[in-house]
Amino acid sequence: MSTEDHKWYVVRCFSGHEKKVREFLAQETVEMGLEEKISEILIPTETVVEIRGGKKRTREKNFFPGYILVNALYDDSVNNLISNAPSVIGFLKTDKDSKRPAPLRQDEVDRILGHVNHNKEVAATGGHIEIPYRVGDIIKVIDGPFKDFDGTVEEIYPDKLKLRVLVSIFGRKTPVEVDVNQVEADA
C-alpha cells in the first residue's frame, strides 16, 4: 500500500500535551500494526533564539498550540486510535454534523510543511533571533560607555543583534548603537 492515498488531518489535543500525544500515537501505531495507515505525526514547530538577561537561549516554539498533524489513510481503526488517545479532543472537523474529518487541502499542507522545513534550515544556520524590543520602547542601558542612560529604541538590527537608541546627552537626543544584551526594558 502506498502513502499516496494518505491525507493530512488536524487533531486537536490539550495545549502543551502535543509531544506526549505524538509519542503515544507513534507507540500505539506500532503496537496495533497500523504503520501502513499512519505514516507521519507532526507537530509544526520553529526554533527561536531569544536573548533574555544577556543570555542567548534556543527553544522550540509551536506554530499551532493544541494541534498536531497526522498523515494517514483514514478509516475506523485510525479514528478509534486517535479519538481514544489520552489528551486528545478529536479530529478537527469542518462542520458539526460531519462524521468524517476533512483532510487539509494540498496548498495548506505545502504552506505548513514549507514553513516547517524553512525553519529547520534557519535553525541549522544559527536560528532566528527574537529581539524583545520594538521601535519606540523605552530602555535603560546597563552596560558599556552609556551605562545608566535611559533611551528610546529608534531602529533594530536583528542580523547584528544591535539597537540604535536615542539617549539624552547634555540635553540633546543623540543616537548610539548598543548590543541587545547591553539594555533592559525600563520599568
Report on this model:
The chain contains 3 helices and 12 strands; from the N terminus they run E-H-E-E-E-E-H-E-H-E-E-E-E-E-E. It is an alpha+beta fold and 187 residues long. The chain has helices at residues 18-31, 76-83, 106-124, and strands at 7-13, 38-42, 45-52, 55-62, 67-72, 88-91, 128-130, 138-141, 150-157, 162-169, 172-179, 183-185. A hairpin with a 4-residue loop joins strand 9 (150-157) and strand 10 (162-169). It has a 5-stranded antiparallel beta sheet with strand order 11-10-9-8-12, with no helix packed on it. The protein has a 4-stranded antiparallel beta sheet with strand order 2-5-1-6, covered by helices on one side. Strands 4-3-7 form a 3-stranded mixed beta sheet. The longest helix is centred in the middle third of the chain and has 19 residues, at 106-124. The model has no long low-confidence stretch (mean pLDDT 84).
| Share of helix, binned | 10-25%
| Tally of alpha and pi helices | 3
In terms of DSSP E residues, the strand content is 35-45%
Strand neighbour order, sheet with most strands: 11-10-9-8-12
Give the strand tally. Answer: 12
- The end-to-end span amounts to 61 Å
Overall pLDDT score:
84
Largest sheet: 5 strands, antiparallel
Spans where pLDDT lies below 50 across 5 or more residues: none
